[in-house]
Each structure stands twice: as C-alpha cells, then as structure tokens.
Amino acid sequence: MLTETILSRDLSEMECLEIWFRVTTDDFIFNRTDYQGLLDFCQQIVKSCGLSILSLRQDEKLHAKFYQCDNSYYIGSANLTLNGFGKNIEIMLEDNVNHHEILIGIMNLREKLSLLSLLQIKNFIKMCQQEDIIKLKNEAKKFNENVRNIKIPPTSHKIPPHFRIPW
User: Fold this and answer.
1) Count of CA atoms in the C-beta half-sphere (13 A) of 65
2) Of 73, 82, 78, nearest to 90 (Cα)?
3) In the chain, what percentage of residues exceed pLDDT 90?
4) Residue 97 lies in a domain
5) I want to staple 56 with a disulfide (CB 3.0 to 4.6 A). Which of 37, 116, 130, 131 is the partner?
C-alpha cells in the first residue's frame, strides 16, 4: 500500500526518505515487522530515485511513531501498517506549526540510531529464515491462536476512578 502510494507520485522533488525501525528476531517471530516488505519497498525506492535518497536507521529499543510529510508532522501510536492506519484504535496528532521544536527532538533521537544498509536487512532476513527460527515463529502463531480462544468471564468490578478518562 505504501509502495503504491509513494511510487504513484512524482518523486523528482523528494529530497530524502529516512525510515526508522527496529531489527529484532522477536519482531520477526511475532510478525511485528514485515522485514521482507520493508526491503522490497526500499528496493523500489532505490530503483525509482537512487540509493542516495534513502537512509535507514535502527535501534532495537525504538518504539516511537513519527511521520513527516510535506509541511506536517504526525506523532502518535500508529505503526506504519494496514492495521496501524486502518483497523486498530490509534491516535495520531498532526502538527504543522511547531517545526523547530519537533525537529530538535527528532535530531536528538536520530543521533541514538545506527545506520543500516539494504545488505544488512537482507542478511537479517536470511538469518531469520533458518529452520529453528521458523519453528519458533510457527509455535508463537499456535500460542497466539490458543490465547485468543481463552474466554475470560465478565466481571462486575467497576473501573477505578484513576483509570477514567476525564472528558
């Protein structure tokens, strides 16, 4: 979906595309990140615009969700997935006024991330496709299916006041 959206536009004026994400075997096992999809997307960008436009940064503790498009910044909880922007209950705040303050925060965070190459992503995917990791992935899928089938009886307890939303 992202590939179609971006590649359907005139990219001649795009100065850069920087993608931040985390690389962990847990995210591969539990399908939190589609690394092959990410690699395919990056390869399409490189094919269309050249390698110099793309920058990949990662940290295994990264959990921030920040998107910049044109003159707006979006900060919130949504992952860059179909579920994140279409199915889940998420929050995204748009800001097109506080550019300076947001950029300072982003640059401070950016310094903590390490650069990553397409080759490193390919090697990570290859490592994750080893038989033992695929077995773990299948076991995790079975476990998740079993957890979904557990029925928790409703409770008559009221929500404590400190958990209530004030509006």
Assistant:
1) 15
2) 78
3) 25
4) no
5) 116
Residues linked to residue 19 through DSSP beta bridges, in sequence order: 56
Q: Which domain covers residue 45, as residue numbers?
A: 2-62+113-163
Which pair of tokens denotes residue 159? 């929500």
Cβ count near 88 (within 10 Å): 12
CB 56 within 8 A of CB 149: no
Flag whether pLDDT at 164 surpasses 60.
no
Q: What are phi and psi of 82, to 5 degrees?
A: -60, -45
Hey, what are 153's tokens? 């009886």
CA distance 109 to 50: 26
Total number of domains in the chain: 1
Tell me the pLDDT tens digit for each residue of 25-80: 888 888 888 899 999 989 988 888 887 889 999 999 998 888 887 778 888 888 87
> The dihedral of CA 37, 52, 78, 2: what is its sign?
negative
Amino acid 33 reads T
Which string of b and e fits 25-47 if b means at least 16 CB within 10 Å?
eebbbeeebebeebbebbeebee
Query: Does residue 54 lie in a domain region?
Result: yes
What are φ and ψ of residue 68, in 5° steps?
-120, 130
